[in-house]
Amino acid sequence: MKPETIKHTRRHLRIAGAVALVLGMAGTTPAVAAQDPGREVIDKKCASCHLEDGKLTRIPEVRKTPEGWDMTVVRMGIWHKVELTPDERRAVVKYLADRQGLAPSEAAAFRFLTERRPNMQDAPPDEEMAQMCGRCHSYGRVALQRRDEDEWRKLMHTHLGQFPSAEYSALGRDRNWWEIARDKMPGRLAEMYPKNTDAWRDWSRAKHRPAAGRWIVAGERPGWGAYTGTMTVTAKGSDRYEVGYELHFGPGNTVRGKGESLVYTGYEWRGTAQLGNEQTQSIFALSEDGARMSGRWFLRKADEIGATFEAVRADKAAKNALVSVSPQMLRAGETATVTVAGAGLDAKLDLGSGVEVVEWLGKSAEQLKVRVKVAADAAPGVRKVAVGGRASDKSVAVYRQIDSLRVEPAFGIARVGGGTNPPVTAQFDAVAFLDGADGKPGTDDDVRLGSVPAKWSTEPFDERAKHDEDLKFAGHMEPHGQFLPSFAGPNPNRRGLNNVGNLSVVATVADGERSLNAKGQLVVTVQRWNPTPLR
Question: CATH topology of 213-313 equal to that of 321-399?
Answer without folding.
Answer: no
